């Protein structure tokens, strides 16, 4: 069913006419008029991490022209205002669907109301939006980052117990992701709860890694200059773990299975799992970026007039060095 095409042409003409102040029907490019495809405007967070690159690749690989889609991809470069501008452009272009991977949870009510008024369904993917009114988006699919945080903390409790360190004072350095992003909120909530529950654990520092290797490296290197004791570095994604490890290497501090500092990471990308298999990362909690087919399923349901589930969570697991082999890592898609 190609309902999308008709709506797209009508809306793009109307929207563009509105912008031109109603002074006549604007010319539409040939290719747009002829398109039978479902047009998707995708506002992506950025390219800050290996996870994100895998996520973008999954969207490109799913929404191909051969399969009947036109994917308009916008990279917001980690700036929320860029996402708002991209969405406004998608409205003017009269896309059939807007897919939004929001950088942060807040600040969506106004623009999503504009999208709703334009009659375009919004599918939120990966991170969540925190809106007054849930009817501002049609469906969300992503990871349970609160589960991920709790899982990491539960593992750390067990690991310290196994090592007979359950009574020891444990100093944790926290490398946080982008403030206000769902994976930061979920993973941080797990750690905060763990610190409340274990009175021998304390936060020795909290730095902003912004989910990138470069920022995490800079912040951890700076922190290490203080000479404070660090037993655990809780990194909110693989790339920030790489940055932290780089800083530890330079400071001559050992880490991982045979080292002095326990490294916890999230994502379980190939590079992250390789570091884990080598014993450099002690725990890697999985976060699956392959959302293209999941978003496609939601779009197919909408095209068929069905109602997709409002929120769907991806099932995930976690990895430690002894649970990994090169063959296993090789066959993973990211
Ligand atoms: O963990 C991180 C990325 O939103 C779940 O964003 C995603 C996170 C992922 O930059 O690597």
Architecture blueprint of SSEs:
Blueprint: H1 3-19, H2 30-34, E1 38-44, H3 50-62, E2 69-75, H4 80-93, E3 97-100, H5 109-117, E4 122-125, E5 139-142, H6 145-162, E6 170-176, H7 182-197, E7 201-208, H8 213-224, E8 232-235, H9 238-251, E9 262-267, H10 270-277, E10 283-286, H11 292-303, E11 311-313, E12 318-319, H12 326-330
Parallel strand pairs: 1-2, 1-3, 3-4, 4-5, 5-11, 6-7, 6-8, 8-9, 9-10
Antiparallel strand pairs: 10-12
Bound molecules: beta-D-fucofuranose.
Q: Per the principal axes of the C-alpha atoms, what is the gross shape?
A: elongated
Number of contiguous helices: 12
Unreliable spans are 1-28
Radius of gyration: 22 Å
Mean pLDDT: 92
Describe the main β-sheet briefly.
6 strands, parallel
Model description:
The protein has 334 residues and is of the alpha/beta class. It has twelve helices and twelve strands. The strands form two sheets. It has a six-stranded parallel β-sheet with strand order 2-1-3-4-5-11, sandwiched between helices. α7 links the parallel β6 and β7. α6 runs parallel beside α7. The chain is elongated, with a radius of gyration of 22 Å. The N terminus is likely disordered. Bound molecules: beta-D-fucofuranose. The site of beta-D-fucofuranose has 13 residues, from α3 and β9.
